Amino acid sequence: MKERRYPRIATNLPAKTSFSQGASIEMEVCQLSVGGCKLKGDDLFDTSRMENISIKIGNRTIEAKPQPLYCNIKGDDVYFGVAFEKLSLFDTIRLKRFISTHIANHGAIWPPSLAS
After folding, report:
1. Could you report the per-residue pLDDT of 50-76, keeping only the tens digit for each?
2. What's the CATH number for 9-102?
3. How many CB atoms lie within 10 A of CB 33?
4. Taking 60 as the threshold, does the pLDDT of residue 95 lie above it?
5. Which residues, in sequence order, are CB contacts of 45 under 8 Å at separation 6+?
6. pTM for this one?
7. Would you state the pLDDT for residue 47?
8. Contact 10, 34 (CB under 8 A)
9. What are the domain boundaries of the chain?
């Protein structure tokens, strides 16, 4: 199994995916790392049109330019894996702090040695 570059945590954070031409949809971040995330939604869409992902963490929002990696359908849910192509320095720091705190309190899902 290929090793991941960053620890990954399980979450249920609200997110909004914005598309070219101004449309957007609400989704859920179900897995998160500094390098990307796994999004859960209700509808299948053309991932090449994704322009931005806004992830709500507490009272702050992290903005990321997504690079779509995969799409899976399980039952009524659609899962999208994306890498963060562009993330500001401040958002990177906020994300690292959030993930570190989460791992300290709840563990990680990757790598397994960080899990509680």
Report:
1. 999 999 998 999 999 999 999 999 999
2. 2.40.10.220
3. 21
4. yes
5. 19, 25
6. 0.88
7. 84
8. no
9. 9-102
